[in-house]
Amino acid sequence: MTEKEREELEKEYQIWEEKLKDLPQCSLPLFNTISDIPLKIVYTPLDIKDFDYLRDLGFPGEYPFTRGIRHTMYRGRIWTMRQFSGFGTAEDTNKRFKFLLAHGETGLSVAFDYPTLLGKDSDDPMAKGEVGVCGVAVSSLKDMEILFDGIPLDQVSTSMTINGPAAIIWAFYLITAEKQGVPFYKLRGTIQNDILKEYIAQKSYIFPPEPSLRIIVDIMEFASKEVPKWNTISISGYHIREAGSTAVQELAFTLMDGFTYVEEGIKRGLDVDTFAPRLSFFFNSHLDFFEEIAKFRAARRIWAREMKNRYGAKKKESLLLRFHTQTAGCSLTAQQPENNIIRTAYQALAAVLGGTQSLHTNSMDEAWALPSEKAVLIALRTQQILAYETGVVNVIDPLGGSYYVEYLTNKLEEEAYRYFEKIEKMGGMVQAIKAGFPQREIAEAAYRYQREIEEKKRIIVGVNEFILEDEKLEIPLLRIDPEVERRQVERLQKLRKERDNIVCEKRLKELKMAAKSNENLMYPILECARAYCTLGEITNALKEVFGEYKEEAFF
Amino acid sequence: MKKKIKILIAKPGLDGHDRGAKVVARGLRDAGFEVIYTGLHQTPEMIVNTAIQEDVDMIGISILSGAHMTIFPEVLRLLKEKGATDIHVFGGGIIPDEDKEKLYQLGVGKLFDPGTKISEIVEYINNYFKDKS
């Protein structure tokens, strides 16, 4: 745009804006994004004044990857439809996996129960009432073998949502593959293994930050040599968002966590290009449609720029922000649950327009329970309809060039950099977490959002408007039989009797020795797994050396 | 001067979903109650001990993990064992209706669903103490 053209446009815009003054406009709901970015009624070239196509967007598959990480995007391959699932015993979940694969799912994603997420065995006193309830119980290699029984691990990619005890659960998986005759180098999948967001949001931490980061670098180093197709960390904004953050906070804290892992790897002396290509991301897709799309686009651009300029990555793969998306669990309502199908469909569309590599769509009943088979099938069908019926896969980044979307992408990026600066001033993410900074920012945003709903500044259908009086829940819920806990505990106790306990003791002792040295812990953990040491035993051995993390309670 | 109503917001079990607990704790504080928050990963023993030590009037338990049928009865049992049945227990989270009925019969106070307004909880607490006095 020439200077003259711009002046002309500005003049015309002012004339147009003048006309708005006399027209009625509602004052509610809020005309702000969920991140509280105030919005104009319309966007024009004036809002992206310095726009430079090649610098800001580039072509798909080309730096800075704003439009997508692949040249062909969904024409080359549809995103992976990956439904997070796990409940009850390993047998129950194995059955659900086979059901999903039979109906066209293309990747597996394991949800573990709370005891497992915290490195506790199913017979731990703290596990009472929680075994197999929020996910599947995996206390040893034995459970993992059952979980993947009849599923050839060289043919599926498996994502595992596991963080505190990621190294141990991954070791169970690796040995399961070995027993199936599948070599490590053929395995594809992801362990979440993002401990920083645990301290920030999801709170399934075990050890303090420093030893946790050491284990993560051990995993990155081990994988780059032995399991080269494995995604070693899924740097996650999802849980940050679920805890109540804004889109800006999700973007900023997640990328900052990512930078921290990169810096830790470099500090160990690893070449950034050996591990960066295996870092992947995981974002939330919430209700604010355009803000979400802008968030995904901004994330790709920032990551590529920082990896190249700040961390000196040379390989193209190191610059790519590959990501999984899950629709926002926290946006599901307990009221009129069928409405959640519609919410999820819009959120899924935002993820696809934002260029996601894989997607989980929530089921309508998930504000109440883990999804029933019927509900999860509708959720999967939502993705298939999007992929095969709507035509949105035909053209890459179809919103690229929209004045509004480009403005919002720039704005989110700018706000994210503001957070980066603040956190760097605090001495980096680990220090910021210890000071409770991201935790407080999120709690503040969650409270603001709740107040906006209570004051009806934001309308949630069925919750604060369009309410059904005396609503009765009419969808069937999945219930976990308390027998699950008994059966699981029984199996674990049988294992403890049948395995070679002398070898177990020896392996655990070797692990503790390794933990005190600088040795890569993956090797001794694999040996523990092979000997059928349990998750709790291995975790406790490491706790003896590393201690436990406790967070300060505040609200 | 009348003593402020004192409430312990408790987060039992292994569940880390503390968004609701924190939002409610803050909302109740802003509504004029005295609020203590336990933090995460509390056992029923820890919750009951804190409640007695802090001399609270009510315990509000936030639970989204599905372990409610284990946690609530245990908290009630411990309160009875320690002679502290004057402390009223209520809660919120993901609790299906049929479980709610069972827990109400055991003597648990109101169980709030996701999507509840803080003002409804405030009203419930005020009514509870109005009825008592």
TrEMBL record, chain A:
<keyword id="KW-0413">Isomerase</keyword>
<dbReference type="InterPro" id="IPR006099">
    <property type="entry name" value="MeMalonylCoA_mutase_a/b_cat"/>
</dbReference>
<dbReference type="InterPro" id="IPR016176">
    <property type="entry name" value="Cbl-dep_enz_cat"/>
</dbReference>
<protein>
    <submittedName>
        <fullName>Methylmalonyl-CoA mutase</fullName>
    </submittedName>
</protein>
<dbReference type="InterPro" id="IPR006098">
    <property type="entry name" value="MMCoA_mutase_a_cat"/>
</dbReference>
<dbReference type="GO" id="GO:0004494">
    <property type="term" value="F:methylmalonyl-CoA mutase activity"/>
</dbReference>
<feature type="domain" description="Methylmalonyl-CoA mutase alpha/beta chain catalytic">
    <location>
        <begin position="33"/>
        <end position="548"/>
    </location>
</feature>
<dbReference type="GO" id="GO:0031419">
    <property type="term" value="F:cobalamin binding"/>
</dbReference>
<dbReference type="Pfam" id="PF01642">
    <property type="entry name" value="MM_CoA_mutase"/>
</dbReference>
UniProtKB/TrEMBL annotation, chain B:
<keyword id="KW-0170">Cobalt</keyword>
<protein>
    <submittedName>
        <fullName>Cobalamin B12-binding domain-containing protein</fullName>
    </submittedName>
</protein>
<dbReference type="InterPro" id="IPR036724">
    <property type="entry name" value="Cobalamin-bd_sf"/>
</dbReference>
<dbReference type="InterPro" id="IPR006158">
    <property type="entry name" value="Cobalamin-bd"/>
</dbReference>
<dbReference type="Pfam" id="PF02310">
    <property type="entry name" value="B12-binding"/>
</dbReference>
<dbReference type="GO" id="GO:0016853">
    <property type="term" value="F:isomerase activity"/>
</dbReference>
<keyword id="KW-0846">Cobalamin</keyword>
<dbReference type="GO" id="GO:0031419">
    <property type="term" value="F:cobalamin binding"/>
</dbReference>
<dbReference type="InterPro" id="IPR006159">
    <property type="entry name" value="Acid_CoA_mut_C"/>
</dbReference>
<keyword id="KW-0413">Isomerase</keyword>
<keyword id="KW-0479">Metal-binding</keyword>
<feature type="domain" description="B12-binding">
    <location>
        <begin position="4"/>
        <end position="132"/>
    </location>
</feature>
<dbReference type="GO" id="GO:0046872">
    <property type="term" value="F:metal ion binding"/>
</dbReference>
